[in-house]
Amino acid sequence: MAPNDSAHPTEAADGPAPGRRKASRYLVPLAVAGVAAGTIGLVPALAASGDPDLPKITAQELIEKIAASDTEQLSGTVKITTDLGLPALDTLAGSLAGPDGGEGGAGSSADPQARLTELASGTHTLRIAADGPDRQKISILRDSDEYSLIHNGDEMWGYDSASNEVFHAQEDGKGEQGPGSSAEKRGEDLPATPKELADEVLKASEGTTSITVGGTAKVAGRDAYKLVVKPEQKGSTVGAVTIAVDAETGTPLKFTLTPSSGGKAVVDAGFTKVDFSRPAASTFAFTPPKGAKVTEADSLEGEKNAREEFEGGLADFAGPDVIGEGWTSIARIEAPGGAEGKAPEKGDAPAEAQQFLDAFGDKVTGKFGKGTVFSTRLVNALMTDDGTVYVGAVTKDALVAAANADK
User: Which CATH architecture has domain 18-296?
Assistant: First the structure.
């Protein structure tokens, strides 16, 4: 079994420029948050067959192994359990959307925005397949039906077998690419090699994060190392993030996020079966079944107008200010009317949404005045009576302290 091994290399004299160093301070927590949100179904409980005996490896070497992984083809079965301390969000979304899956019946039950919220609570089983950046498929398996999301080239299909509804979207091919593009310019600031990336991650972790190798595990029948990431700052709601990394390919196989308050994981997701061979091309082919209702993404004028109205409303919000750094970063957001001291009216929200919010509200007071803290097991938010919002993966006390110091 690989030993615990933390790594904090000393900074080289020719380290990154000040701008890059400042940005890298947020790399570890933001990367973990991104993994939690973006791969929330791509990463199994550890097998009971015993931990494998693998060669020793340092934390830096394991990060380099992950960065050097070139896995682009795989398929398998994934189990994901999410416990934010929230009610089933698919039920809430259904009550807000109406009986036909969208407000006023204008939407589609096959719309990914309606279906993928299911993964935010409860336990789910998924089948996944990937063949490079242009072909992916995720199927959420339910008792007697399933929902599939298929990306094949410039087309995306969503299919809900329960309602026999199809959602179809097509890319316009206008993405910015090539020399001089913003994507290329962003790439200029990224580490060029796995070792450089590992150095950046470890430097960013100094003073805020402990990164160690926490032994080995069997995941989906494969040997894996466990990379353990723990905040060193007080006030974070994150206890630890453990990523099981395939010893052969460097591919993350399991992701577990535990809260600082203890108890079961907030997110525990991973492969129960995995195959690194290329999936058959037919896996990504889709033709709407006979009699299926097909909704084209660009035909949802009502939804488009509502989205534009919502985005216009967001323009009234001041951009968030970030208080603190690392795991205890708190975003301060000035809600519309907040600068004038006008708080949102209680009746402004739909009854279902208001009931949902009130169930998690905890009245607090301080130098800032009065407000309400809305809590989950990971992310908490303080809304003051004057309309200012403080939100982060931090404790209630940390939010109140930030609001007090802000006055």
Answer: Clam (2.50)
Phi/psi of residue 384, each to 5°?
-80, 160
**Residue 76 near residue 220, CB atoms below 8 Å:** yes
pLDDT of residue 107: 66
The position carrying tokens 């039920």 is 91
pTM above 0.85, yes or no: no
> Virtual CA dihedral for 317, 322, 326, 328, nearest 10 degrees?
-80
User: Strand pairing partners for 6?
Assistant: 212
- CA of residue 60 relative to chain centroid, distance: 24
Contact by Cβ (8 Å): 213, 59: yes
Least confident of 115-119, 233-237, 337-341: 337-341
State the virtual CA torsion across 216, 217, 220, 223 in degrees, nearest 10.
40
Sign (positive or negative) of CA dihedral 19, 22, 26, 27: positive
- Alpha helices (runs of H) in 52-97, residue ranges in sequence order: 59-68, 89-97
Q: Which CATH architecture has domain 317-406?
A: 2-Layer Sandwich (3.30)
DSSP letters for 383-403: EETTSEEEEESB-HHHHHHHH
What pLDDT digit, counting tens, does each position of 350-392 carry? 666 566 666 668 899 999 999 999 988 999 999 998 889 999 9
Spatial neighbors of 129 by CB under 8 A, at least 6 apart, are: 74, 75, 135, 136, 137, 279, 283, 284
Per the CB < 8 A criterion, the answer to whether 177 and 1 are in contact is no
Q: Report DSSP state, residue 263.
A: S
Q: Which residues neighbour 386 within 8 Å (Cβ) at sequence distance 6 or greater?
A: 338, 341, 342, 343, 369
Domains of the chain, residue spans:
18-296, 317-406
Six token digits for residue 392:
């982060």
pLDDT tens digits for range 245-260: 999 999 999 999 999 9
How many residues are listed for the chain in this entry? 407
DSSP states along 208-250: TEEEEEEEEEEETTEEEEEEEEEE-STTBSEEEEEEEEETTT-
Q: Residue 33: enclosing H or E segment and its boundaries?
A: helix 27-38
d(CA 29, CA 230): 10
